[in-house]
């Protein structure tokens, strides 16, 4: 193996929050490096593959800060805590401008006043450390070794406290963490969701078997410490897989779901359905999307990739009717219940692939005035987009958590007679490299 030390300057930050350096015309991406910084980098060549590793930062950027989180160097859950929040915002703004700026001017990113402890959903994996003590936290990046994490800077504090209690109770209840290699043990993961507006808490215990000795006493002990826990679910996952949740769910305490309030509407959230992880910024995002749609009151709106129906139900008061489509069965069930519970009668939810559904709508020549679309990171697909332009709505509002696929899809829409009129980045995920962006689109 050939190794060489080089001094290089970081020329930018990529969408994963890694510093970009260019060596002999080839780009390398290094964690924990900021644009403008000089660094010593080790280049190694092994079997024709060249890799670069950060050895030392020689000249620090004025945007560099000491990460508040003690686990930052190992965890990987956040990627840019070493960058000041202003620096993060500038990086995200520029990233969106570079990707989408050619479509129209990009508004200033809407940032958080307090960019900490914003996540309402947390996931913790249970294991043993080398001393056979029970630990809980997340997998170290690119490994299956769990790093113990007691407090996370971006997660809800209450959820962290509950995880700590669960860890403490394991000893007295002789509950063993699951071992992926031997397939022995009981508790694999814990998922916690908290309604910030209602303070209701869901605890999902992902376990390897239905047999839960001392279950009732366990529930009592957990609830005694945390009376805000309103529901506890056992999720059985005995497969050899890195997927967290198994198929079977047993509600062992409470209703099996929690509720939260967004933009004045009450939502029911179950264990498996998607719910935005930053409720404070979700309201900011939705309000911007609604503003871009400029509803007059007589529109038919399609809420595509609707999750538990949040956007559609919120806009239902402002329009004639709403059609929602979503692939996840549990989310659609929640959406239908949410409409009933809020006594909303002009919204219809369908459980289907958004592309499939769009093809059907286009073939039926259905009239849709506004399409609000919020696809997952992979973006939309050709089936959806080609039927969307056939359906020919006056306005499209495209919400995305991945500006790269959003740019690709926007290019398609522009090719078929649409133009972007407003682009608004919203910081939904401070300290991570993730960027959320909403684009207002109009027929030309
Ligand atoms: N608009 C919602 C959900 C956005 S997340 C909100 O703001 O909360 C994206 C959603 O798309 C998820 O609920 C996911 O289950 C759904 N989804 C993923 N692929 C899909 C597809 N092919 N068709 C329809 N929905 C899909």
Give a short summary of the structure.
This protein is α+β, with helices and mostly antiparallel strands.
What does this entry look like structurally?
The structure is a single chain. This protein is an alpha+beta fold. The protein has 3 domains: 2-64, Nucleic acid-binding proteins (OB fold (Dihydrolipoamide Acetyltransferase, E2P)), CATH 2.40.50.140; 88-114 and 278-443, Vaccinia Virus protein VP39 (Rossmann fold, 3-Layer(aba) Sandwich), CATH 3.40.50.150; 121-262, OB fold (Dihydrolipoamide Acetyltransferase, E2P), CATH 2.40.50. The chain contains 10 helices and 22 strands. It has a 7-stranded mixed beta sheet. A 7-stranded mixed beta sheet has the order 18-17-16-19-20-22-21, with helices on both faces. Helix 4 links the parallel strand 11 (201-207) and strand 12 (229-236). Helix 3 packs antiparallel against helix 4 (215-225) and helix 8 (354-363) runs parallel beside helix 9. The longest helix is centred in the first third of the chain and has 16 residues, at 85-100. It is globular. The model has no long low-confidence stretch (mean pLDDT 95). The structure holds S-adenosyl-L-homocysteine. Keywords: Methyltransferase, S-adenosyl-L-methionine, Transferase. Belongs to the class I-like SAM-binding methyltransferase superfamily. RNA M5U methyltransferase family. GO terms for molecular function: rRNA (uridine-C5-)-methyltransferase activity.
Layout of secondary structure:
Elements lengths: L1 E8 L2 E2 L5 E5 L2 E5 L7 E9 L2 E11 L12 H4 L9 H16 L20 E8 L5 E6 L6 E3 L8 H16 L14 E8 L6 E7 L7 H11 L3 E8 L11 E7 L2 E6 L2 E6 L8 H15 L6 E5 L5 H6 L5 E6 L2 H13 L5 E5 L2 H10 L6 E4 L8 H10 L3 E6 L2 H13 L2 E9 L9 E8 L1
Parallel strand pairs: 11-12, 16-17, 16-19, 17-18, 19-20
Antiparallel strand pairs: 1-5, 2-3, 3-4, 5-6, 7-8, 7-10, 8-9, 10-11, 12-13, 14-15, 20-22, 21-22
Helix pairs in contact: 3-4, 8-9
The protein binds S-adenosyl-L-homocysteine.
S-adenosyl-L-homocysteine binds next to helix 6 and strand 17.
């Amino acid at each position: 193996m050939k190794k060489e030390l080089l001094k290089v300057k970081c020329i930018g930050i990529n969408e994963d929050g890694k510093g970009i350096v260019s060596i002999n015309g080839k780009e390398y991406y290094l964690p924990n490096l900021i644009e403008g910084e000089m660094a010593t980098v080790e280049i190694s060549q092994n079997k024709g593959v060249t890799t670069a590793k950060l050895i030392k930062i020689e000249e620090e950027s004025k945007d560099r800060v000491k990460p508040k989180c003690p686990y930052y160097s190992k965890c990987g859950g956040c990627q840019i805590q070493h960058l000041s929040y202003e620096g993060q915002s500038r990086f995200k703004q520029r990233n969106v401008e570079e990707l989408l700026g050619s479509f129209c001017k990009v508004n200033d990113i809407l940032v958080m006043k307090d960019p900490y402890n914003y996540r309402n959903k947390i996931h913790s994996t249970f294991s043993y450390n080398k001393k056979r003590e029970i630990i809980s936290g997340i997998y170290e990046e690119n490994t299956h070794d769990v790093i113990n994490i007691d407090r996370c800077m971006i997660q809800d504090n209450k959820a962290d406290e509950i995880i700590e209690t669960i860890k403490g109770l394991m000893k007295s209840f002789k509950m063993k963490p699951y071992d992926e290699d031997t397939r022995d043990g009981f508790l694999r993961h814990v998922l916690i969701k908290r309604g910030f507006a209602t303070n209701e808490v869901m605890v999902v215990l992902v376990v390897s078997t239905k047999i839960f000795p001392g279950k009732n006493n366990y529930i009592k002990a957990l609830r005694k410490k945390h009376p805000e826990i309103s529901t506890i679910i056992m999720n059985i996952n005995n497969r050899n897989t890195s997927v967290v949740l198994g198929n079977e769910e047993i509600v062992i305490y409470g209703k099996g779901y929690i509720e939260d309030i967004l933009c004045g509407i009450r939502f029911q959230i179950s264990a498996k359905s998607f719910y935005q992880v930053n409720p404070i910024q979700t309201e900011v995002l939705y309000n911007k999307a609604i503003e871009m749609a400029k509803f007059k009151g007589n529109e038919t709106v399609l809420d595509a990739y609707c999750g538990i129906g949040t956007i559609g139900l919120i806009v239902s008061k402002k329009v004639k009717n709403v059609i929602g489509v979503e692939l996840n069965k549990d989310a659609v069930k929640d959406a239908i219940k949410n409409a009933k519970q809020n006594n909303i009668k002009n919204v219809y939810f369908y459980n289907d692939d958004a592309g499939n559904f769009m093809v059907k709508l286009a073939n039926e020549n259905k009239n849709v005035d506004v399409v609000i679309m919020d696809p997952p990171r992979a973006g939309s697909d050709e089936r959806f987009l080609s039927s969307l332009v056939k359906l020919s709505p006056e306005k499209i509002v495209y919400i995305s958590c991945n500006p790269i696929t959003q740019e690709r899809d926007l290019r398609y829409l522009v090719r078929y007679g649409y133009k972007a009129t407003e682009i608004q980045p919203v910081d939904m995920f401070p300290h991570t490299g993730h960027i959320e962006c909403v684009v207002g689109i109009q027929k030309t």
